[in-house]
Amino acid sequence: MSQATVSRDTVQRGTGRRGALARRLGGREGVAGWAILAVLVLIAVLAPVLAPHGVNTIDDSRILAGPDLSHPFGYDDLGRDLLSRVLYAYRVSLGISIGSVLLAMVVGIPVGVLAGYAGGWTDMLLMRGIDLLLAFPALLLAISLIAILGPGTLVALIAIAVIYVPIMARVVRSSVLVVRGQPYVTGARARGATHLAIIRGHVLPNAIGPVLVQASVLMAFAIVIEAALSFLGLGSQPPTPELGLMLAEGNDYVTTAPWVEVFPGLAIAVTVLAFNLIGDGLRRSFDPNWIAR
Amino acid sequence: MNARLGYVVRRILLTIPVLFVTSVFVFLLIRLVPGDPVRTMLGMRATPQNVATVRAQLGLDHSLPEQYWDWLRGALHGDLGTDFVSHEQITSLLGQALPVTLELTVLAMLLALLVGVPVGVLVAARAGWVRRISSGFVIAAISIPDFWLGIMLVLLFTGALRALPPTGWVPLTQDPVQNLRFIILPVVTLAAGQSAYLLRTTSAAMLGTLGEPYVAFLRAKGLRQRSVIYLHALRNASGPIVTVTGIQFGVLLGGAIVIENLFALPGVGTLVVTAINARDYVVVQGGVLVIAFLFIGVNLVTDIVHGLLDPRVVEAGAR
Amino acid sequence: MTSQPLLEFRNASVDYATSGGTLSAVRDVTLTLAAGETFGLVGESGCGKTTLSMALMGLLPPAARVSGEILFRGASLGTLAEPARRELRGNQISMIFQDPATSLDPTFGVGFQVAETIRAHRDVSRKQAKARALRLLAEVGIPDAAARYADPPHRLSGGMRQRVVLAAALANEPALLLADEPTTALDVTIQAQILDLLADLQRDHGTTILLIGHDLGVIAQVCDRVGVMYAGQLVEVAATAELFAAPKHPYTRALLGALPTRAHGPGRLPVIPGQVPDLTRPPAGCRFKDRCPAAMNVCDTGPALVTGADGHAVACWLDPAADGPAPEGSATAAPVTLEGGGDD
User: Fold this and answer.
1) What is the pTM of this model?
2) Contact C121/B at CB under 8 A
3) Distance from C-alpha of B244 to C-alpha of B198, rounded to nearest angstrom
4) What HEC string does A220-265 produce?
5) Which terminal residue of chain A has fewer beta carbons within 10 Å of its beta carbon, N or C?
6) In Å, how far is B276's CA from the nearest CA of chain A?
7) What Å distances lie between residue C152 and B96, C107, C160, C185, CA to CA?
8) Cβ-Cβ contacts under 8 Å for A192 (sequence gap 6 or more)
9) Going by C-beta distance under 8 Å and a sequence separation of 6 or more, which residues neighbour residue A125?
10) What is the pLDDT of residues B242-259, one digit of tens each?
11) What is the spatial distance between Cα C165 and Cα C159, in angstroms, rounded to a whole number?
């Protein structure tokens, strides 16, 4: 896929009108994705207000009981309200996915810019390091890190950030390489612009597109990865409400009490879907060939 | 032909340093555990004598490079150490677990390719609503976590239909039919998400190649549409498909770790996770190494296949 | 031996359904090509010359609608189903395109790409096809054809690749070859070689060539007759020398007048004022009227292409005799290309 680059002066600013906004979000899919995400973030933030029952409130008589009027998602294997747990679990899921990607960006973007801009030995060295990290299947690397540091929510966040740093760095580096070769950069140098000014004015604005697209995709996967880690017992620990953990806890009862597995899983799928839609929308809005209908 | 052979040899040779560095990295894993790994491993049995014994056993009292050299020598001779809990040779543990993981991942990847690529080609050849439906399907399929899909499949096939067992294992060599019964749900679970990826990659790559100028000349030569699509376009599109397959195999391996746990398959993934929970670092080291090497090996194969399909890659590799 | 023309366009039109309305790319083209001649079709980018040839090949996108008739060897192509049209392509009617770098599949050997054209239309074995392909490659001037048979296209130079393309196009001895700007993407020296090759091949195989281009110099060199198109209309057709010496249509005159020659001297070169009309809202009648220095009210109703006794055809209401002498500049001036953006 070719990347069109523009010098900073022609990067378009949004106008704020609705049509323009829909275009920037990349069409119907993008708007739908952002809408869903907005709802989920609200849920996460307002969980204490929205949750009808306590997260750890146990009702012994209703262990694995099915959904009823006051407990629309049913009860889990300890008699806790599933709906409340799912609502609170969004805090962990969204927190980890957004947090890990942000952390990966904080580390990965400078690395990518450095490698792409400086070139030469720096680039080679950094690339070798990145390739080494990428030689491992992502989940395996995360598991290995957790093996060293011990399980936990924060550890999971860091582990995911670590596996995302090389991916981010690579995306940034490709962007940087494209821009660096453009005539207007040479022109800027000839006019006496400093490296920093060029990076700030030309490199970063053009890298922002691919980075954002990649970030949204990575956030989508972070949810799944951290759910998987918790499912394996390596992420969040009980009694933290966490979607993957809930899936693990209820797995033995799936045939008798399917709601224990259905709802947390759906919750994960909806979140991943939202991020994927956002990513698709962003990809389209940055594609110079895309014409909004 | 000579250029191709050179490319293959070069690829293989380039893999060796990767294997080496990976092994160093994995080796350092144990040594990175904060605190004393031996005490953590032994847990309640961490008496000073035991600690000293295990230390000596693991060679932790030697210098770091010495330790690595010892370990490497042992590894090359097929000795990856002993699981100090069960006193089994790690190599034999891995030897039993690896075929399970291999069967699972290879079958899953094959199934994903067999479903994803042809459907992707068909979707690219048609226009309009077919493509819209397929892209919607792909997004939905990608969004579903594979282990949740596995659970749902168990719900359906074990709970509702009572057709397949939820867990268990019989080796392929022992009883192929039973083996199939145990492996079919895990394989389908893993393959589902991957086939969606391959579908998307294939259809995007095919659309790309079908828009290339040489396709106009192929049509002008009066070639059948079938030839244009399957002989020419697909070959040109195969580059991205092969590359994505390689990358996705890594994702597949990661997914396999989780799926093995879900279906209680005695593969390397289960071995590693159990070992982590038991603080059995030596086993962790061996298992991680095997999976990492497997991934590197698969990437080597996909690189070679890519080179065989597209002569430009061979030239680029020569530089 | 029939005196039936090889190719006939009868009021051929091509319209595209676009989001901005119906685009009239070609309107009412009537043209006849005889067997064995070399015909040049000139016009600036977007005038419809490539569209017309693609309509002949049947390779237009689905959004295009062809009306009127295109007859090849007396048979109307519009009545043929797709399999029958495919039988003609690469077999009786071949087409080569502008950029040889992108005409060949990068993942297959050049020899294979010639051989597959043969096997698509002849019932021969792979070995026979390969042998014939080798002979063709030698005939178009590829040195050491046997060694280069398996080379992928990127190992050959641009000129070599265009020769391979020609070999594939002529593999089945087509009666008609459409050459869409075959030399535009090549160096001037290679251009001359390819044009010579075309002439040789035509002489040896008796192929009729329809050469499309905007380089008047190339056209003048190679073609027996020339047709001029503007905004989808065929405005003038004449023998090459006649067209350059005594053009009758105001557009042709302005075109030739814009060719820079020594006679122009210092100062600005003459240009044709105005712009090509928007083909989604094409003007009625003559499409050049808004830029024509001699436009009249009657130009709102289409002048048809009228052929004079000497075979010189022009679509204009003007009395040809009443206009001034031919403009300066002659066919042997340095090749000048007409500027314009976009594809036909």
Assistant:
1) 0.79
2) yes
3) 8
4) HHHHHHHHHHHHCCCCCCCCCCCHHHHHHHHHHHCCCCCHHHHHHH
5) C
6) 6
7) 47, 6, 12, 20
8) none
9) none
10) 888 888 898 899 999 999
11) 10
